[in-house]
Amino acid sequence: MSPAELPQPHRTADVRRPTLNAVAARAGVGRGTVSRVINGSPKVSARSRAAVEQAIDELGYVPNRAARSLVTRRTDSVALVVPDAENRLFSEPYFSEIIRGVSAGLAGAGMQLLLVLARDESEYARLATYLSAQRVDGVLMMAVHSDDTLPDRLDELAVPTVLAGRRSDTEPLGHVRADNSGGARVAVEHLLASGRRAIGTITGPLDMDVARARLDGYREALERAGLAVDEDLVATGDFTEEGGRAAMRELLRRHPGLDAVFAASDVMASGAVLELRASGLRVPQDVALVGFDDSIVARHIDPPLTSVRQPLEEMGRTMASLLLDEIADRGTGHRAVVLPTELVVRESA
Amino acid sequence: MSPAELPQPHRTADVRRPTLNAVAARAGVGRGTVSRVINGSPKVSARSRAAVEQAIDELGYVPNRAARSLVTRRTDSVALVVPDAENRLFSEPYFSEIIRGVSAGLAGAGMQLLLVLARDESEYARLATYLSAQRVDGVLMMAVHSDDTLPDRLDELAVPTVLAGRRSDTEPLGHVRADNSGGARVAVEHLLASGRRAIGTITGPLDMDVARARLDGYREALERAGLAVDEDLVATGDFTEEGGRAAMRELLRRHPGLDAVFAASDVMASGAVLELRASGLRVPQDVALVGFDDSIVARHIDPPLTSVRQPLEEMGRTMASLLLDEIADRGTGHRAVVLPTELVVRESA
DNA sequence: GTCACCCGTGGGACCGCTCCCACGCGGCAT
DNA sequence: ATGCCGCGTGGGAGCGGTCCCACGGGTGAC
């Protein structure tokens, strides 16, 4: 390697950006005053403020986040943790919409969004340490499982945390969720209203609260209509297309005369459609079908799927605002917010 | 407000985390040595190293990022910029898969991923300043439009930048893209191989490079087969379902005898299917159809859509690695990487 | 035995900001 | 006039790291 090829002492092109000091010098005031202007303190005379503001945009000054964080012990950023195992979920509008809401809710507060995909278990396990090391001011978690203890550990470490959905009906942490049982109830009531009586359901994994809540809604609708719940009409899926198909097959085997199905997710409903078609049954003529999520597949299934919509973007926005509250004042405690769902009627029921 | 209700001097629960100094004291060495151990310098004796390592995990020490950034002028984080106007895109696997790849590629290097959704024009305009203010070490941009100048500004500001896709065939910046023309060519060759001869195409907006590249591939396949390209068989869409449907209608009007269509996206293909069905034409018997993207809708369209798959996750991973290279050594210049596509044959062609 | 060298090490200076203390000055009550 | 108050202000200290310089003690060459 010839001398000319040796790395230069400081090859970095970082033309040193102006500092607080530079602004202060140019405006003819002290650092303190500039800092006060930047942070919107009222204790600055109009004259100084004007001078500082002018200097700021003549210099194109932007505060150095690292320097600020170092002293304030805040980072003005929050992490959004997504267990990457849930890859199928991530492709659904579910994540994108919530992320959009979160981002919108955060942007107003000048907060940054750190996206953390936890690839595997070991990585996930390190997360508590990682996140609590003054890296973020708060954490948003999606797709938490019932037995996940990471949220609790974060809570112990005094890291403000808000979940999308709850782990159980005694969730101690702050969280935002859709009215899953209410949505399911309305879906089933819709089927009842169209005269269906032998209504089955394809549930999600029952160790997940969403799955249990949607099943509860199904039961509730039947009970309110004065119908007995036949356990033969309840088949467990796993939120995948294949699982939905298998559950549908099981339902048809157990109860060939069934005339409607409420699937706890659109993806499972799409599997159910395949099975119904394979069995020579028509949707909705022979078997009516309602899904949940109103995901992109709902519109493209043949026939287009009636489904329960969750206000995803609003959920994201609400998560952001709950988290900001917890960050601003640890005293607010852990709040839970439930947002209403909406039945979107298409052709499958 | 009674005294008891006054905010406490320091309500913050941040139990001061151990610092470098604490570790040094416990290990009985100087700060310099601890720093060297942490940064893997070889100039540390085995004995000191062991002592420091023990102290580190007894104390549960984690370095303070802000303090480090302040002096190194690096943030160890990169921004992923997604223009939020593209909401339809964001719900596609396109984004999720690329993000997953990016995240995987970054995690290995200990880099954080900052997700930046640019809601509107004004916000987007501020981004150059924002991103260049020593906030991130590099920027990844998705869905850049032909007339977007943000990448150029970032480049001028010496912010390493890598794009997903290129703005034109003279893209000066580093970027990663799929072999769009090659993929399109293979798709059309597949149609030719099944004996179709009157093959139309539904393009994307021709001010986008992907759209032009896919159209080029279409032309190339026909030319290679010795067929003339009939401009009547080219209809322009806009990557939406409705646009695809309108383009299909136009094609049928201009050329009722056509027996195959290559749509430059699955979503447009799904619109085309609706129009074909409405015209009483069967897929693939009357008109064969191939899409592009192999998105989630491809599998759920009736009939399941033959489509061109892009290696999305790999694209993300490649973007990350290009960016890391640019960050590590600005001298590498702007590299362009093209990744191969793959035809996924289903029932529509 | 002396000297030059190298290796591992400690610690000062500094990164750019916020926090807070002390100070000067004008206005108002005495 | 004299004192006091409070506002706006400047600037020192310090946040927790990295960088680098100087230094002590061993080692090998002469």
Descriptive account of the structure:
The structure is a homodimer of 349-residue chains. The first copy, chain A, has 349 residues and is of the alpha/beta class. Chain A has three domains: 14-63, 434 Repressor (Amino-terminal Domain), CATH 1.10.260; 77-176 and 313-338, Response regulator (Rossmann fold, 3-Layer(aba) Sandwich), CATH 3.40.50; 180-309, Rossmann fold. Chain A has helices at 20-27, 31-38, 46-59, 65-72, 87-91, 93-107, 121-132, 150-156, 180-193, 209-224, 241-254, 266-278, 296-300, 312-328; strands at 77-83, 112-118, 138-141, 161-164, 174-178, 199-203, 234-236, 260-263, 288-292, 306-309, 336-339, 342-344. In chain A, the strands form two sheets. A six-stranded parallel beta sheet of chain A has the order 2-1-3-4-5-11, with helices on both faces. Chain A has a six-stranded mixed beta sheet with strand order 7-6-8-9-10-12, with helices on both faces. In chain A, helix 1 packs across helix 2, helix 1 crosses helix 3 and helix 9 runs parallel beside helix 10 (209-224). The termini of chain A are far apart. Residues 1-13 of chain A have low confidence and may be disordered. Chains A and B meet through helix 4, helix 5, helix 6, strand 2 and helix 7 of A and helix 4, helix 5, helix 6, strand 2 and helix 7 of B. Chain B binds a DNA duplex (30 and 30 nucleotides) through residues 19-21, 24, 29-33, 35-36, 38-39, 43-45, 48, 63-73.
